[in-house]
Amino acid sequence: MHRIWAAALTLALAAPALAAEPMSAEEFEAYSTGKTLSYAVGGEIYGAEQYLPGRRVVWAFRGQECAHGQWYEQAGQICFVYEHDATPQCWSFYREASGVRAQFEGDPTGTELSEVSQTRTPLICAGPDVGV
């Protein structure tokens, strides 16, 4: 009986520590490639990103035009650069039961995105990139 409680306690203590570890670039790539993920901030839809092979992406804020870019790993973070802005935007992604959670590293207020849906359908772009 003591062993069962000890094992349960070990698992309970280890689970939060595992959940707190950011995804590696390889884990993120395996999770996201071929999908379009929609993200929310505070329950409000924020935007969606399509993850293509070769670490290429297509991002759109809700109701905005699409931006094409790429991502790479830097110092344990997933960084994105887009055609309209080459300034890296770095995030830490965490795997959770409901999907992924992303914490923006350059925001003092701590912007946090939560995955609210995923599909294998390409991102629908507003504006001149319709159908891309």
Helix content: 10-25%
Q: What percent strand? A: over 45%
Span of the ends, CA to CA: 60 Å
Order of helices and strands: HHEEEEEEEE
Please state the CA-atom Rg, rounded to the nearest Å: 17 Å
The unreliable regions are 1-19
Helix/strand/pairing category: alpha+beta
pLDDT averaged over residues = 84
Main sheet makeup = 8 strands, antiparallel, barrel
Helix segment count?
2
Strand order of the largest sheet: 1-2-3-4-5-6-7-8
SSE arrangement:
Layout: H1 2-19, H2 25-32, E1 36-41, E2 44-52, E3 56-61, E4 67-74, E5 77-82, E6 85-96, E7 99-104, E8 112-119
Antiparallel strand pairs: 1-2, 1-8, 2-3, 3-4, 4-5, 5-6, 6-7, 7-8
What can you tell me about this protein's structure?
This protein has 132 residues and is α+β, with helices and mostly antiparallel strands. The longest helix is centred in the N-terminal third of the chain and has 18 residues, at 2-19. It contains 2 helices and 8 strands; from the N terminus they run ααββββββββ. The model is unreliable at 1-19 (pLDDT under 50).
Main attributes?
about 130 residues; globular; alpha+beta; disordered N terminus; 2 helices
Question: What's a quick, concise take on this entry?
Answer:
The chain has two helices and eight strands. The protein has helices at residues 2-19, 25-32; strands spanning 36-41, 44-52, 56-61, 67-74, 77-82, 85-96, 99-104, 112-119.
